[in-house]
Amino acid sequence: MNIHDLLLPSRFLMSLGHIILLFMIAQTLVQDYQNNNDQSASQFILQHKSIGSAVGLSIVGIFVQLGSFLGGFTMFHSLLSFVHIIVDFIAVILLSFYVTDNWPQNALWWIFGTLNAPFALLEMGSTIAQTVAIKKSKYKL
User: Fold this and answer.
1) CA angle, 73 as apex, 123 and 61 as ends, to 5°?
2) What gap in Å lies between CA 138 and CA 119, rounded to an integer?
3) What interhelical angle do 41-70 and 78-100 show, nearest 10?
4) Which residue spans traverse the membrane (predicted)?
5) Ordered alpha helix ranges (H), the chain
6) Residue 70 CA from chain centroid, whole number
7) Long-range contacts of the stretch 73-78 (C-beta < 8 A, 24+)
8) pTM to 2 decimals?
9) Do 12 and 85 meet the contact criterion of CB atoms below 8 Å apart?
10) How far is CA 51 from CA 6, 81, 87, in A?
């Protein structure tokens, strides 16, 4: 059994788990307001915008990762796939605690800043490097 036979489905499933949790957080924003009636409307709007922005940027980052992965640019990079599996696993665990334990909203920004944004940028860099390498090899023919 090849290592890619294990890494490919694992990376895909961890990315899907990450996306599902982000969509769960987006869906629970209104329910959180209904449960916390002690907030004013302006506080809720500010919190809603902050969490919505963090969730939106996180979803964009995951779609960048999935687009590069499913496009075949980084599908067979074993180290990159392993790193994404570990990072998505940690993010899924932390987002699960965020949902179940009612962590403060800035925790979502920390999760995004440490586990999503840098690795989406890494994925974009790897995709660009792969694209440049393909174009250079075409010109040498």
Assistant:
1) 30
2) 28
3) 160
4) 12-30, 50-72, 79-98, 110-134
5) 3-27, 29-35, 41-70, 78-100, 105-111, 117-140
6) 15
7) 73/126, 73/127, 73/130, 73/131, 74/123, 74/126, 74/127, 74/130, 75/8, 76/4, 77/126, 78/3, 78/4, 78/7
8) 0.83
9) no
10) 34, 28, 21
Q: What is the pLDDT of residue 47?
A: 79
Q: How far is the first Cα of the chain from the last one, in angstroms, to the nearest whole number?
A: 35
Dist. CA 77–CA 73, nearest whole Å: 9
* Average pLDDT by stretches of 10, the chain with 141 residues: 84 93 83 65 78 91 93 88 94 91 86 93 92 80 51
Both tokens of residue 98? 């965020």
Residues across the chain: 141
**Counted domains in the chain:** 1
Residue with tokens 């899907």: 16
Domain carrying residue 77 = 3-140
